[in-house]
Amino acid sequence: MGAVSGGAWLLTLADKGVFALTMMFVLVGISHFAKPEKLEAMIPAHWPYRRAMNYLSGAAEIILGILLLFPATRMWAAYGLLLLLIAVFPANIFVARSKPNLYNISRLFFQPVYMAWVWFFCLR
Predict the structure, then answer these.
(1) CA 104: distance to chain centroid?
(2) Alpha helices in the chain (DSSP H)
(3) How many angstroms separate the CA atoms of 81 and 117, rounded?
(4) Which pLDDT does position 9 carry in this prediction?
């Protein structure tokens, strides 16, 4: 990350984008553990293992988010996050249909933005 110039660390735009992605995914991942009932409400009630799915996706967000920071693991972490975002998209559709409000509907539009963000800063 970055280069040293005149004793100060200079972060490139890509470095800043990766760091912001890491912070976002780690914080969202932590929320899966801090408020599990909120995120489990996005999973249809008839699906088995809702708590396990919530914790597994939260752990994946934290681990993959951290792995973005390291050039050696960035590509694999980015692909993992793209797959995770695709996998959880049905939950966003479910919550937007079952509890339609601005926040729940907006999640449908932000998911592709997050995917583009991952691609732009980690894979292109």
Answers:
(1) 16
(2) 13-34, 36-40, 50-67, 71-98, 102-118
(3) 11
(4) 67
What is the distance between the alpha carbons of residues 93 and 1, in angstroms, rounded to a whole number? 36
Percent pLDDT > 90 in the chain is 77
Rounded Cα–Cα distance for residues 62 and 34 (Å): 13
What are the residue ranges in the chain where pLDDT is below 50?
Answer: 4, 7
Please classify residue 63 by burial: count the beta carbons closer than 10 Å to its beta carbon, then call 0-12 exposed, 13-18 middle and 19+ buried.
middle
3-class SS at 39?
Answer: helix
Per-residue confidence (pLDDT) for residue 11, from 0 to 100: 78
Owner of token pair 């970055």: 2
Kindly report the backbone phi and psi dihedral angles of residue 10, in degrees, each rounded to the nearest multiple of 5, phi listed first: -110, 120
122 vs 14: CA distance, rounded Å: 8
